[in-house]
UniProtKB/TrEMBL annotation:
It comes from the Bacteria. This is Uncharacterized protein.
């Protein structure tokens, strides 16, 4: 765990890591000016759907088109959170419309919200008080498959084993 919160390493399919390029990744947004420049370059079509985001280990928000892989957005690095985010105009400024921790590559816990909140506050974006859509991820201790827990049913969809109450996706954590 870092001073900024738990960190998450990529736990998704190995073949997706091959798309990571040195020096690549999502657009680093560390100030209101960075966000203003980035959003001004987006088309209406792009703004109509969510973007891929990660919060890097430096606490900065990184954004990429929705169909980008989180591991590519992060440049292959560990993150403090990952998911999908959309933006809307609110009075005379930009704000977050929706935000989730939906990333099957990093499978961040819902507790990663605090890192997202700090990153959004750093760029002076209006935001909700938490994820607007929370995704609960668990690794099955029986078959080792990754699961999305739905309706608080902590049972593996692959082998019917009980899933742990605590986040457990990173075997080295």
């Amino acid at each position: 765990m870092s001073a900024r919160g738990r960190s998450y390493r990529y736990v998704g399919p190995v073949e997706l890591e091959t798309a990571v390029r040195p020096g690549g990744g999502g657009c680093r947004i560390s100030s209101a000016a960075d966000f203003d420049s980035w959003i001004a370059e987006r088309s209406a079509g792009e703004l109509a759907e969510p973007f891929t985001f990660v919060v890097g280990m430096d606490g900065a928000l990184r954004l990429a088109p929705r169909r980008s892989e989180h591991v590519v957005c992060a440049g292959g690095d560990m993150v403090l959170s990952a998911g999908e985010i959309s933006f809307m105009r609110e009075a005379d400024r930009w704000a977050v419309g929706e935000v989730s921790n939906q990333s099957t590559g990093y499978c961040p816990d819902v507790t990663s919200w605090s890192a997202v909140a700090r990153a959004l506050d750093d760029v002076e974006l209006g935001r909700p008080s938490g994820f607007t859509h929370e995704v609960v991820f668990r690794r099955c201790p029986g078959c080792q498959e990754h699961n999305i827990v739905r309706e608080d049913d902590f049972v593996c969809v692959f082998c019917c084993s009980a899933l742990p109450a605590a986040w457990n996706l990173d075997r080295t954590a």
